[in-house]
Design a protein that fits this description.
Blueprint: H1 3-12, H2 16-31, H3 40-50, E1 63-68, H4 74-89, E2 93-98, H5 101-112, E3 133-136, E4 153-158, H6 161-164, E5 170-171, E6 174-175, H7 191-196, E7 201-206, H8 214-222, E8 227-232, E9 246-250, H9 252-258, E10 264-270, H10 280-309, E11 317-321, H11 325-335, E12 349-352, H12 360-367, E13 378-381, E14 394-399, H13 405-412, E15 433-437, H14 442-449, E16 460-464, H15 466-470, E17 473-478, H16 481-494, H17 499-518, H18 537-553, H19 560-580, E18 589-590, E19 597-599, E20 618-622, E21 630-634, H20 638-641, H21 645-653, H22 661-682, H23 689-709, E22 712-714, E23 733-738, E24 742-744, E25 759-761, H24 776-787, E26 791-795, E27 803-806, E28 811-813, E29 817-821, E30 824-831, H25 839-860, E31 866-873, H26 883-890
């Protein structure tokens, strides 16, 4: 186990593929010499022993390629590699090569700006006071005099800088060398010579497939680095040949299969779409119109997700791929015209191609595409968006006039795979999905997906209904009933004409708002253990003091005293309304403890794997002159002869990641002593024990480790005892639905597939006036709750109402309903009957029941209501079912 590598993994929060890559680098750099002029054949053999697919370094120095899919974090891996080589190997000089200006500018910011949210060294304490010096193509000729012996120097260059700086410049009829190869007054030599003379230069090649051409190879070889680290998502050179120096592969297909670090791409078409009788231009217009429908639905879904989860908003955009600059201009003119959605997108379209790329304003908009306040919603491009374009808010792609749609999709899809929230999937389908419109080539794409090596195998296929494409959706907020009442009073006050009457009503409403704001914060304060305690005189007095304190923080106005008087007068009334419109849901963060791993005690099986004989160890000396006599000299074992053989084996055992020496000291010594005793008993010459252990210590440790694995135990994660607060406010709901899509909950909806797209109203017992349902089952269960006399109140909890975690805290549980009766409160889940015994449902059930247990423990101490969990199969939810019947049948115990 490499302590430095583990430190870096934790500090940089590396994703699993990046952690595996860093481990490979750590292991190989322990084997490689890391010096100029090393024997390339010998170095290659070391690498091939562990990674046989590595056939050739393909350069005049050891160079290792990491094949990692777009969006997984290659730049972050470069930062990890630099950190490791500095901390573990003492290397201070690095040369980072960028293939184009876009990546060049990005890397300078990534490596050199600690205030940037993508700064690659964030968390590395060694770089806080010894920040790496960033040397670029603009400032390298000023370097040299400022170098110190302790700093880490990261040179970042665009490959074209070497040759393009002085293109066509001559002196006395002779072409001058690039500026980087000319004499520097600071260094007394050219900067290029300075770099190539460094004994610890490591080169990192971003988008490494761009440096396998002969000219690039020659320039890089001239630098004579001690090590090359290549990163690419496309390990194919310009001639179509696969790289021969790959030591790690995490392909796009693997990333898609893992479903963690990239969006889930989907290819979509209009249902029953036919191209017959349509011109190319007509097909393009249909695709563009349908893309807007998908785009609008995505906008709404992202806004709902941001509201419900309290995270930053993400503004998505559409990428339109054109065949030529002329074609792009035609599409630009059409999309920005009044013929396309009445000119809605005029001023919101960005054209990127060789005719526009150098325009400064276009460049600025291009760079700012991720900003929420950027106006751009559609980007039109002609083969310009290649490497380095790492925006995370591209959600819809429209390839137009593609000769080979499947190839175009494979090439373009990588531009939209990055995820906006911490680079990982959220579990929300709309937030995690990239949609590619392929109306005219849909069948061909599906056919291409059958090819064994096609990444399209991992892509889902969608047929969009006319209702999906033509329906207009909107984002709807469904506040709690308390907040609805406040909004209603605000509107009433706004309509008043009498200023005196209006001021009195405003003071009263301000007082009401102040109380409503404070009541949910009284959890555990002033002895409050349930909502009824809010009526205690000392609690009321405390709330009044808090209101006065809040008022004093601002500028005290002439109506402050009136507001405080109003608050005191209406306090009991507001508390009653608060109590009547909430369910007392205990507030707790229910999280699982860490999984415990240990080894059961056992005795070593000594019957096999512990019989060794010493290997001959002699130094052969051959004279170079005279008779050239050969002499064999026995090896003296100085350092090793005094080492305890048990400690030698244990030092190898603790390299296995599952083995913690501190937790298993006694067992490790016991097993190792048994192994050493057995080896000694099997030896023909007992005096050779230390020699044998030294020679075979890795194999001995491996044999012990194999037996340890059979006794490895992993605990079922228990839940930590949470801090329980008596109640919380009812959170607002946010969702998207069809515009004008409100229906009364008693309405019969046909087809039932429309139910998830509608908003239902008419509820009297619920804590909100409006809800959406995911299925007919949920809608009918709401009908039961509204019409059952035993149900006092019920709630369809918003996504952030509960904090119940499961699956080792990697997932959050969202109950379908909370139901209150005279004697109890129920968490309720309705589920398809054939899914009840699935692992996921059972894990969620355990989490919910644990919540109910802790909630009941709390309410038992305050004379409150008992909490129970119901898991109800869908086929038992019928409008004529009573809630009591469902409780009797499906209460979990």
């Amino acid at each position: 186990m490499n302590a430095k590598a583990n430190y870096i993994k934790q500090r940089l929060s590396l994703r699993e593929p990046l952690m595996e890559s860093l481990d490979i680098l750590a292991g190989l750099t322990d084997l490689l010499e890391l010096k100029k002029g090393s024997d390339l054949f010998a170095e290659l053999e070391k690498v091939q022993a562990l990674y046989p697919l590595c056939k050739n370094f393909e350069r005049e120095f050891p160079s290792l390629c990491f094949y990692i899919a777009t969006g997984v974090g290659k730049t972050r891996l470069m930062g990890a590699c630099i950190t490791y080589l500095y901390l573990q190997k003492g290397i201070r000089n690095f040369f980072v090569l960028a293939p184009n200006l876009t990546i060049y500018d990005k890397l300078i910011k990534d490596f050199g700006d600690p205030g940037y949210h993508k700064y690659v060294f964030a968390g590395i304490t060694e770089f806080v006071h010894n920040r790496p010096v960033i040397i670029t193509g603009e400032n390298y000729n000023q370097q040299g005099a400022l170098f110190s012996g302790e700093e880490v120097r990261i040179n970042i260059f665009n490959v074209s800088k070497f040759n393009a700086e002085n293109k066509g410049t001559k002196e006395a009829g002779v072409a001058k060398p690039p500026r980087i190869k000319r004499l520097s007054e600071y260094l007394g030599q050219s900067y290029w010579s300075y770099l190539s003379g460094l004994n610890d230069l490591v080169i990192l090649m971003d988008e490494a497939h761009r440096y396998h051409a002969d000219a690039s190879k020659k320039a890089i070889n001239e630098l004579q680095p001690v090590l090359g680290i290549e990163l690419t998502a496309t390990p194919i050179d310009e001639k179509g040949n696969a790289f021969n120096n790959v030591v790690y592969e995490y392909s796009l297909a693997k990333a898609l299969a893992d479903g963690k670090y990239v969006k889930n791409p989907a290819v979509a078409t209009r249902k029953n779409f036919r191209t017959q009788g349509l011109s190319v231009q007509e097909i393009e217009k249909i695709k563009l119109e349908d893309a807007i429908s998908v785009h609008q639905a995505t906008i709404n879904a992202l806004e709902v997700y941001a509201r419900n989860n309290g995270v930053r908003k993400v503004k998505p955009f559409i990428l339109v791929v054109c065949s030529s600059i002329t074609h792009a201009r035609e599409i630009f003119d059409y999309i920005t015209s009044s013929s396309f959605f009445n000119g809605t997108f005029n001023g919101k379209v960005l054209q990127i191609d060789s005719s526009t790329k150098k325009d400064e304003e276009i460049e600025r908009q291009f760079i700012d595409l991720e900003r929420y306040d950027n106006d751009i919603e559609i980007v039109i491009h002609v083969n310009m968006l290649k490497e380095g374009w790492d925006v995370n808010n591209l959600y819809t792609i429209v390839p137009l006039r593609a000769a080979n749609a499947s190839v175009l999709i494979e090439q373009t899809i990588g531009r939209g795979l990055r995820l906006p929230y911490n680079g990982e999937r959220t579990g929300d389908d709309a937030v995690d999905k990239l949609t590619v419109l392929a109306h005219d080539n849909f069948d061909k794409v599906i056919e291409a997906a059958q090819e064994p090596n096609s990444i399209l195998q991992k892509v889902s296929f969608i047929e969009l209904d006319d209702t999906d494409l033509t329906a207009i959706t909107e984002v709807i907020q469904s506040p709690s009933k308390i907040q609805v009442e406040v909004t209603r009073e605000e509107k009433l006050i706004a309509s008043m004409t009498d200023e005196k009457e209006k001021q009195v009503a405003t003071n009263r409403l301000d007082a009401k708002k102040a109380i409503i704001h404070l009541l949910p914060t009284m959890n555990g304060e002033q002895g409050v253990t349930k909502v009824a305690d809010l009526r205690k005189p000392e609690v009321k007095q405390y709330v009044m003091e808090q209101i006065e304190e809040e008022q004093s923080k601002g500028q005290l106005g002439m109506f402050t005293q009136q507001l405080l008087q109003e608050a005191a007068a209406i306090y009991e009334e507001v508390v009653t309304s608060f109590k009547n419109n909430i369910i007392e849901i205990p507030r707790m963060d229910l999280v699982q403890e860490e999984v415990k791993v240990w080894f059961e005690d056992f005795d070593l099986d000594e019957s096999r794997g512990f019989a060794y004989e010493p290997l001959s160890e002699e130094i052969r000396v051959v004279e170079l002159t005279g008779d050239r006599k050969t002499t064999d000299i026995g090896v003296e074992y100085g350092a090793y002869s005094s080492q305890n053989p048990v400690n030698q084996v244990i030092s190898e055992l603790i390299n296995y990641p599952e083995i913690d020496y501190d937790d298993n000291t006694e067992l490790l010594h016991k097993l190792t002593n048994q192994a050493v005793d057995t080896i000694a008993a099997n030896l023909s010459d007992a005096s050779k024990l230390m020699l044998v252990v030294r020679q075979y210590r890795k194999f001995i440790a491996g044999n012990i480790y194999d037996q340890l694995k059979a006794h490895l135990k992993i605990s079922e994660p228990a839940y930590q005892d949470p801090k329980v607060l008596p109640f919380v406010k009812i959170e607002d709901w946010n969702f998207s639905a069809l515009k004008d899509g409100r229906r009364h909950y008693k309405d019969s909806i046909t087809p039932t597939s429309l139910i998830p797209k509608l908003v239902f109203t008419g509820f009297e017992k619920a804590c909100h006036f409006e809800y959406k349902f995911d299925s007919k089952t949920e809608k009918e269960f709401a009908y039961i709750l509204e019409n059952d006399a035993t149900v006092l109140k019920w709630l369809r909890p918003a996504p952030n109402q509960f904090r119940i975690y499961w699956a080792n805290n990697s997932s959050r549980y969202y109950p379908d309903f909370v139901v209150e009766t005279a004697n109890a409160i129920y968490l309720v889940e309705t589920k398809a009957a054939n899914e009840l015994e699935s692992t996921e449902v059972q894990d969620k059930k355990r989490a919910a029941m644990q919540y109910c247990w802790y909630a009941s423990q709390h309410t038992a101490s305050t004379s409150g209501k008992h909490w129970s969990y119901l898991l109800i199969p869908h086929d038992e939810v019928k409008q004529n079912s009573s809630f009591g019947y469902l409780v009797n049948r499906f209460e979990q115990r």
